[in-house]
Write a structure and sequence with these properties.
Keywords: Membrane, Transmembrane, Transmembrane helix. The chain has 14 helices and no strands. It is an all-alpha fold. The termini are far apart.
């Protein structure tokens, strides 16, 4: 748990460097509006709309439910997977244990973000974006198959007991999806802007106090705090290196604290266990760059 002293230290750091904090927040806001919002919002609305549509009979076959979660959750960008799994758990389609494993497996950046922004704009080639997306999904599917094997060994839980009882309202599924999507978008914007600003301030403070390479320090810190800012910094400082695509793959696989906070907030709201998610992130940081190396 972060101590009160660290929080006060960060507050003082922001007060002492208001211009740097502003620049970091502004950069995070630009990245959110340019690289995330156009790709994320339409898919979140459609996914939420689909999940909130009343169905006469829910799927009872495990693989049907798991594939529904994977397809809807893994192709919409962060944190659509968490939103999808949480919604299916609310609807009684997934148990708590199933939700924990699926939260870990159904977690991937959207195709439009990887191919459109990372592939075309950062790597300079949409084909490279498709190869990166393929590597991400191979790693996720391997973890998904492992999760399904573990779940198969367990006795099925009573889904009706695991579902969260929500008050019934007369709101239409589309209006409900708009409301839920706006909450997710606000969460994403808040974390992206905050962690971009924090990473920028810490980078400047460290570079001022210690003689370090600014490019390496900035990229490392931003990659830890905010993925999109991290890949942008990596592009600015390491584009000419042969290892550049694999560095981008590692940063995207790690995700950064910004995305982790989004997932944690969504998962904790419905009490989904987080240990499988943490394990899957460690797996992907090593597996995705290696898979991309063989694909390229």
């Amino acid at each position: 748990m972060i101590s009160i002293g660290i929080i006060w230290a960060l507050i003082l750091l922001f007060i002492l460097q208001p211009g740097i904090a502003h620049d970091g927040a502004e950069a995070g806001a630009r990245l959110f509006t340019h690289a995330l919002l156009p790709y994320l919002l339409p898919y979140i609305i459609l996914t939420q709309w689909l999940l909130k549509m009343p169905v006469k009979r829910k799927a009872t076959n495990n693989w049907q439910r798991y594939m529904k979660a994977y397809i809807l959750g893994s192709f919409g960008g962060f944190p659509v997977g968490a939103v999808t799994v949480a919604e299916m758990m609310k609807n009684g389609e997934l148990s708590r244990r199933e939700s924990g494993y699926l939260l870990a497996a159904c977690h991937a950046p959207g195709p439009m973000f990887i191919v459109g922004f990372v592939g075309t704009e950062l790597l300079g080639n949409p084909v490279a974006g498709w190869k990166l997306l393929t590597a991400i999904h191979i790693a996720n599917l391997l973890f998904f198959l492992l999760a399904m094997t573990l779940l198969k060994k367990d006795q099925p839980e009573n889904l009706s007991m695991q579902s969260i009882q929500l008050p019934k309202t007369s709101t239409s599924p589309f209006l409900a999806s708009i409301k839920e999507s706006s909450n997710v978008i606000i969460l994403v914007a808040t974390t992206v802007i905050f962690f971009s600003s924090l990473g920028t301030v810490l980078t400047t403070a460290i570079a001022t106090a210690i003689p370090v390479d600014l490019g390496i320090t900035k990229t490392a810190l931003l990659a830890i705090f905010e993925m999109t800012s991290g890949v942008q910094s990596a592009t600015d400082h390491f584009y000419s290196y042969a290892s550049f695509p694999f560095l981008i793959a590692a940063i995207i696989s790690f995700n950064g604290l910004s995305i982790h906070m989004q997932v944690f907030v969504i998962a904790k709201a419905v009490n989904i266990p987080l240990i499988p998610y943490i394990v899957s992130r460690l797996w992907c940081v090593f597996a995705v760059p290696l898979l991309l190396y063989f694909l390229m």
